[in-house]
Fold this protein.
Amino acid sequence: DAGITQSPRYKITETGRQVTLMCHQTWSHSYMFWYRQDLGHGLRLIYYSAAADITDKGEVPDGYVVSRSKTENFPLTLESATRSQTSVYFCASSTLAGEGQETQYFGPGTRLLVL
Amino acid sequence: DQQVKQNSPSLSVQEGRISILNCDYTNSMFDYFLWYKKYPAEGPTFLISISSIKDKNEDGRFTVFLNKSAKHLSLHIVPSQPGDSAVYFCAASVNSNYQLIWGAGTKLIIKP
């Protein structure tokens, strides 16, 4: 199916475990993003990628690792999960359609609970 | 320190009336503003945007107003419909780049 998908949709893990959240888009968008949404904070950018093999930190990158070996995939890894990483994670992609006109298209989110 | 603030966590409006959602920002370097809408268990979807060179942008029932001197923007929905019930996020960027700074959201409830 066309669009942007995330897997898993729900995940329960334990403190200290490694967890990888997957994101896949079919539009060949150059840019991809990972956000977390917590109550009272809106969405906060974790990492973003401008193209394959190009990634950069966002506002809250600590404890997370990303990679982008293919344009369509942008996995997010929590190397050693902590309770503070319990959150809803959104992946997004975008492409420049004109100055200031680009928008970000979001996946449905992954709800992660760290026990 | 939140650079984009949506001070109303929720808003209830009668169907057919006008809904006004507000957003304040502190960073005078922001030059591009967006509104996103989010339903439960879904990702946000883009609604409308405005560049800092404008003070108004309209798209059907949705109008965004920007007051740069007050560092304030608002989203007007006229007339409000039941399907408008959702959480609305305000977001802003500097130099129209990809790093968006988001407000905490306002939950809009449209009463029949």
